[in-house]
Amino acid sequence: MLVTVFCAPRDLPETTFALDVSPELELRDFVALCELESGIPAGEIQITYVEQPLKDPTRALATYGVKDGDVVVLRQADRRPPPTQSAFRGLPHIDFRSITVPGTSSSSGQRGQQRAPQSSTPAALRGSNPQGLDDPALLQQMLLSNPHELSLLKERNPPLAEALLSGDLERFTKVLLEQQQDRAKREQERIRLLTADPFDLDAQAKIEEDIRQHNVEENMTIAMEEAPESFGQVVMLYINCRVNGHPVKAFVDSGAQMTIMSQACAERCNIMRLVDRRWAGIAKGVGTQKIIGRVHLAQVQIEGDFLPCSFSILEDQPMDMLLGLDMLKRHQCSIDLKKNVLLIGTTGTETRFLSEAELPECARLAYGAEGREEARPDEMADRELAEALQRSIQESGKDEAILITFIFPPSFFHLISINTCMSRRELLTFSRVYAAIQGLSLHLSFQPFD
């Protein structure tokens, strides 16, 4: 069980530490553990639980009613005079505190002298950390000499890691002390809440939040130990293909309803001359981009197969090409993650998915050293939302239009709205034929375009 000890030394600041002990542990053994953690001699330790002093050293903690999560108070009593030898006249008096233990001071007096210069260090970590870890210089040296611990520090405590890597001991000490003081304050607040009025709603709410946060941290710790791969990122599925004879790296997205291509890629492939601008509009979802139009038929080469495909052309799309569900279903494609290949069912051809090193720059997990990690494609599109909407309104000269709505998953766009200038009859006829051929369900809603 986990027992929290609120330590009140005689000449030092109050602190807290936790001990994981057995309910059958005797009080004297518990006091010995407290001596190791607090540095207070066992003869001066007084343990109090629920305002009642625990006096019998041979009784187990469970017999005193101590349970998991309880808080006990450790007070440092006045120094007791050395016991007289009248009761044991035949035995010499042995002061066990004078025995030198490797890695510790030779006497309680020396131990007190060692603690005195460190009185400025918060006691929150002095009582709970192993010996020496409250020394900033030693801690800095240990972390710098251990790459694994340093990498964990970068993940879990970036401010302290930054101060450590700066090489400035004074800055590292300052950040370390600030974090220690903050943790000590939080621990004192937790102790105060545990001893607060049980009928106080605010106190109960804070205790509930503390328990919830503790469960979250514990869940994260277990996940990092048992399933560390869940904290990594996977690369998206890209394949090599050719459009109109030009090499393109295409993103395979079975969740996207339509196949799209960027304007820059369409210009490289010399198919901009085939763009039907009646299908111009705005693509809205996680971001917003302008749709220039649609290429109704183009030739895509995957390995040795030549497949017909249609594209919606987007103006500012950083991704060159996306193979959506319309083409994947049309050619009965299967994504085989075990073999890491895309299987074209109509021809039996397989093409492998690209590794991260082969991906286009916008699709790599590391966006480069020029600050591109702060400008991912979806965030870039969000910043261009107002500009794209304004351009669409200015370029739309029709009083009425037909809004064709395609539903996309979060992997690409939630919604694509195409503002077209086709007549109602032409669009209805085309959409029905297109839906029958592609096996898609087009949701048509007719409304004025403001």
Computed Rg:
35 Å
Proportion in β-strands: 15-25%
Number of helices: 13
Structural class estimated from helices and strands: alpha+beta
Distance between the termini: 67 Å
Biggest β-sheet: count, sense, barrel?
A: 6 strands, mixed, barrel
Strand sequence of the main sheet, in spatial order? 6-7-13-8-12-11
Please tally the β strands and state the result: 19
State the shape.
elongated
Helix content: 25-40%
- Could you report the average pLDDT, rounded to the nearest whole number? 73
Uncertain spans, ≥5 residues at pLDDT below 50?
Answer: 83-132, 367-378, 396-425, 433-450
Protein name: Protein DDI1 homolog 2-like
InterPro entries: Ddi1/2_HDD, DDI1_N, Peptidase_aspartic_DDI1-type, Peptidase_aspartic_dom_sf, Ubiquitin-like_dom, Ubiquitin-like_domsf
GO molecular function, one term: aspartic-type endopeptidase activity
Family: Belongs to the DDI1 family.
